[in-house]
Fold these 2 entries.
Entry 1:
Amino acid sequence: MPKQSPAPDWQDLALGTAITEPGSSRYQRTGDWHSSAPVWDLDKCIKCGVCAVFCPEGCIAMRADGYPEADMEYCKGCAICVCECWAACIAMVEEKE
Amino acid sequence: MAERKGMEVSIAIAEAASACDVDCIAAYPITPQTHVVEHLSEIVADGDLDAEFIPVESEHAAMSCCCGCAAAGARTFTATASQGLALMHEILFIAANLRLPMVMVVANRSLSGPISIWNDHSDVMTERDVGWIQVFAENGQEAVDLVIMGHRMSEDKRILLPLMVNFDGFILSHMVEPIEMPTREEVKRFLPDYEPQQRLDIDNPITMGPVGMPVVYTEAKMAAEWAVRDAYKPMVEIMGEFEKEFGRKYKPVETYRTDDSEILFVVMGGISETAMTWVDKVRDAGVKVGLVRFRMWRPLPVEDFKKAIAGVKVLGVLDRHFSPGGPGGPMAQEIKYMLYGQDHAPKIVETVVGLGGRDVNFIDFDQIFDRCKAVLGGAPVPPFELIQVRGGHYGKA
């Protein structure tokens, strides 16, 4: 877990706002500004993995059952997977919350 | 006690930096540079100082190099002036916000438009917001002392900020003055070896200067604000220790013959020396007038200033720079900030003098004093005025 809160008080910042823990960028969740999410129609999905290959964020992984799934903590909602899907089984669904 | 010798002030500053045993100097070698780094490059080339002298392609690169040197944990020094300081502008913020200790000497000179190489404060006054410690010398000895104190302050674990020593270009930088130059041994007693608090080190990797997302930028700026404010106390302490070691006393705000004065002049830099001589002259004629000078400019010594001017009726402020179409000179603006809303605040007669190397003589002080006397006698406070201009600030009379 991150040693430093992503939203520290100013008194808790390292000197000169330095990052003192190497590799801490893995704690940064970068997908918080997407406004829509890819939703797969698994009846049509052929488990080819093209969506995962083309995802510019590398945030689509193939599940144990062979179907793809996006990690919404990193997905930016760009819809490239929708464009690339051979089976046209992905739709972008607007997130209301 | 060290011997007193006649030296050009720029050369003396270079000798002082050398006595501080600096590790790295990065500087751009031609106009608007002074002899400070020229002489330092000689000292290094002669083998009298074991330091890296990095001649760079611009002042932007000079300050960037200095940031790298300081980040690596080296005692870092540079010098610049006018356009050079302006070219460093964006990196100055980075040096301060990354908390990189270093000392930079600025020979205050005017900025171009029209081209000028002479003295005023337009270079430094446009860099007030960069987050550096800023101090002003009014003669060569003070410049030397502030370079030595500057390294100690900048590297103090309670401060850890870059520090700018300002001294007037030409009027001081090219002047030969009697200087008491501390020896390297004496300086070493006062200024111990530099132990960085945080530095680039492959065994303990850190990231300096990362992106500050909106979630953290405000907090980073707050930290920068308190870094400069909190520097005040240790700086005063170090001035005290300097006095113990070398016998010369420094204060954040200096006063001269302020006793019973109803009118005080406020000045900064080399003009103070002329002003003191003028004060002596008019005091001898029975006129009660004194002088207040800012030694420390960032952090702004608010309480010291208020104490220095307590009970005074009129302040004559002599700025060396102004903001066209704006609120006048920077020193007057900041004095108003310090005094606004305060009961019995003195009235402020704002003037701008000595732009682009124009001499400031007794006749100018006399003129400003006449304006102050009129205000003391009940005349309305005039708007800020560039008093030495042919044609009159507000048109021909």
Entry 2:
Amino acid sequence: MQTRRTFVTTGLVALGAALLTGASGLMVPARAAGVAPTPTMRGGANNYRPGAPLVDRIGNGGFWMTGTVRRAGDGAPLPGQRIQIWAHTTEGHERDPHSHGATLTAANGEFRLEMPQIVPAFGQAHGHLAYDSADFETVFLRPVMRNSKDTTLRADFVLQPA
Amino acid sequence: MQQRFLIWLALVTAIGGPLVVAATSPLLAWRQPIYIVAGLAGVLALGALLIQPMLLTGALPGVVPFRARQVHRWIGWGLIACVALHIAGLWITSPPDVVDALLYTSATPFSARGVTAMWALLAAALLTLWRHRLGPRVFRPAHSVAVVLVVITSILHAVRVDGTMGTASKWMLCALVLCATASALVQRKPWRMLKRR
């Protein structure tokens, strides 16, 4: 029989359970299928330049774009993957060829490329990254910076075999 | 005489100040002219939101009520033109970003606010076209609701944009727009039209 006390108690227990499972991330459905692939962002491909050269640094540097590239499913790091990076910076517009550069991931799947300071454009400072090679599905990312004064920005790729 | 001059000076400063700040921003470096024009059109549209309620409450010295309503109509259409230029310019600059915004799928929340403001502005304008058919008992409250939505979403849009407008000048203009709109509503009381005679 449902009394007011049992009603309140079951309600509190249900609320507590919901908070616990929500907080511990147990309700993420992707976990069943392993590491989910990163969806491509439509705005990410804007001003992309296929075949931008591998560079040690874009322009005069001062800002770091970092991230990782992993394989969907098992989450294994992917070395030697080419990532193109570009943004609107203190040294040029997104569409300018000299604003673009590519780098390769290290053995642990990490990449790191120095570039000029990103400045706000289109309402919020943001960068662009692309994975566009043969082995995996193409992914374009457009991460936004929390603060335009930040001197680093991070973006992680989880790629789906093509 | 001096007071009239001060009111006009304050209005010109409130709108002209942010425009000058935006037009001289270091962020304009490397931007194409169409993108710069699109940004300034947005600033001008925000400025128009300040003039509109002031015209209706007779807050602008030297503008007689008949003339004021006429100017309110012209500035209303000018506001639509500014917003059209703002969106068209952004579209030319970066089509995918604008498509995402218009479809409410953008990663940046301020763009959704801006799109809501655009729809509310269109609603406010369409209502003026049907003004005579609707009659003041429907038109005034409906136009007021649309306008309040325009003002709130426009301000939320503007303050979240990290752009060419200076922070101080932007917050100042937004605060003035909010005050002028609230003042006009309190003075004109459009909800009175809803009461039965």
